[in-house]
Amino acid sequence: MGHRRSLNTIEVAYLYQGIESNILGMKLMTGFAQVAKEEEIAKYFFRGKELAKTIISKFTEVLLDSDINVPSTSAGGVTDSTMSPFSDKLMLYNTSFVK
Q1: Residue 37 is part of which domain span?
Q2: Is residue 79 part of a domain?
């Protein structure tokens, strides 16, 4: 195909930051989904988790196509707890801060 230009430093930085923040968001959505009291709200969190996965895979693909290593993060893990420390309303509010 045609010539593709190399990624510049700022683009790589944005991709790295996007991957890292979406990994955190994916884990947050997983945790929120497993403790949500309302089924509809849990589905909303699962959709958010799937969106984060899609973004991570697209950004990863761009970096790998440019022969750049993908960041590995230690974002921790999600426990198997089903007791919510927060209300569904507060968890929904907090999802607006995850970017």
Answers
A1: 8-69
A2: no
